Amino acid sequence: MSASSLAQFADRRNWWGFANAVVAVLTGTAVLLLAMAIGIGVGYLVRAIAHPSNVVAVFTVPVDRGTVIGVAIGAIVVGLGLIVGILPLFAILTRAMLVPSKEAELREAARAERDRRRHAISAADIEQGRLERDLHDGVQPQLVSVAMTLALAKRKLATDASAAEELIDEAIRTTKLSIGDLRALVRGMRPAILSDRGLDAALSALVSSSAVPVRLVNEVTDRADVTTELVVYFAVAESVTNAMKHSGATNIDVRIWRSEHGLRADIRDNGHGGALLTPGGGLQGVRERVAAAGGSMVFSSPAGGPTEIEVMVPCAS
What we know:
The chain is of the alpha+beta class. It has three domains: about 5-100; about 115-190, Single alpha-helices involved in coiled-coils or other helix-helix interfaces (Up-down Bundle); about 190-315, 2-Layer Sandwich (Heat Shock Protein 90). It has helices at about 5-10, 10-50, 65-100, 100-155, 160-190, 190-195, 200-210, 225-245, 280-290; strands at about 55-60, 60-65, 215-220, 250-260, 265-270, 295-300, 305-315.
């Protein structure tokens, strides 16, 4: 049984809906039986009134005509009274089962806000950890190398100008590499092209620099709000990066479209699968950031592939 099926099984609202369906069946059966009793009563009332003698056959049993009329009228009155009483009671029970109270709505809103805040904090922690790793493993040693190279060039400047010039050239190359890495880090946080030209241009620039061929299909022609576009961009960027580094994929498909619930992105690769949502990992960061924005993420990566990630981020109204 999948996690989504278990979640539906544990959802109290589903159980209340099932209970309401049982009540509806019982109510309908009772109303049907009462309607049949009323119909039988009407039939015998008409028959007794129209009967010429004082004895009326009820199910082949002779019964006094006045008794039949009294019982028939009683059945009609009681049946109508019960129907009139049952239907409003059913309406009250339905509202109690299916319509949440104001207090319950407030509790649910508070719980959702707490979850959103928790996901936002977790996403920020994951992002901070990623930046620290990138700086520690990339830019920091490069800058240390530049400083050491320049110090060595300074010592050689008076005795070996040619060697010093080569060291300075090496320091310049390393500095340019560090600048490129820093720009990539900045783009990962918030690319300028996303703010200036929108999600389509930002994703086009992203996939054009991918080492693995990426087919981008964007069915969204209008702009969404800034937060939604940023979360979707981050989800696609991290998913594509993860596929390039770990999946062994030879092609990646990215589809962006809009549904009634918000902006959706589907990222699928043909790699070997087996990806996991590890704490502090990139894909877990995607899930936390999407959840912090009020969205959802569906992740599938069976052994042998493919890996498919679908995110939904609601758009601000």
